[in-house]
Amino acid sequence: MALVLKQLGGFSRLNAQCPTYKYICAGLSGGSLLYAFYAQVQKQWREQEINFRKEQLKKPIYELRDEELVSPPWNSSNLNEWLYRRVRVKGRPLHYLQMMVPRTEFQKPGYECVVPFVTKENEDQSVQEGLLVSLGFVPYEYKEVTDRHKLEDASVQSFDCFLSQLPELQDNSFGNVANRRNSQWYYADLQLMAQFTGFKNADKIGKVVLEKANFNTPLDERNMRTYDLDADHHLDYPYLKSNSGILYHKNHMPWDWQRAKQQALGSTVVFGAFGALLHLAK
């Protein structure tokens, strides 16, 4: 009992010296509680987003044919019905017009490689139409086509992709400078990328990118193999996302927000208890 009184006496002197301490503690406790509520909302939103992507990826693959290859069936009014859905497209990639957006994967700097994908053109290739396709992640040392130890396949081919807006590459802190003489990309500006292609249908394709992926992988957000490659990176680049990579978002998964909520609730209790002691010791 004497020890408790002694401690309270110390708090009393502290409170007398600076009575605003208890208000600071109350403010910190209230702020922590508000952040815990925010983290809970973010956790629920992220769970809903993961479930939405899963349901979209489970739908049968949709093959674009004929006019759909130049006038895609998605637009501003129905885009949410198509995002993360799997589609199959046929055409040829223009590697010399690649759009390399900086990103880091596996603690290794590199680029998201987005290319114009021709689906229709006249005989002399002077008029072209097509789509935007992301081929995957390319290590920084292979940014330029001429630096690669392989010949890129520019023939007509079929790709299985999913619809994406590259949300993880939308930080526009720096502006893009993009034209056919000087292509410099800092973030994924899909409208500007569509214009950069020079396609006749550029105004119709700036809503999404078709990302290549390996869909023969576990549809599990807790599977940490987010790209289709082994630990030694033996598989050939560009590295494709796995199904778990489509569901994953760095540092913003439900368990990250759950941990943040628990830490905030702990801070709420600690600051609240300390403020109460200061108040009792006045």
TrEMBL record:
Q: Does the keyword Signal apply?
A: no
Q: Does the keyword Mitochondrion apply?
A: yes
Localization, per the record, is: Membrane; Mitochondrion inner membrane
List each coiled-coil range.
Answer: none
Topology in the membrane? Multi-pass membrane protein
Q: Pfam families attached here?
A: SURF1
* Function recorded in the entry: Probably involved in the biogenesis of the COX complex.
Question: Family per UniProt?
Answer: Belongs to the SURF1 family.
- Tell me the protein's name: SURF1-like protein
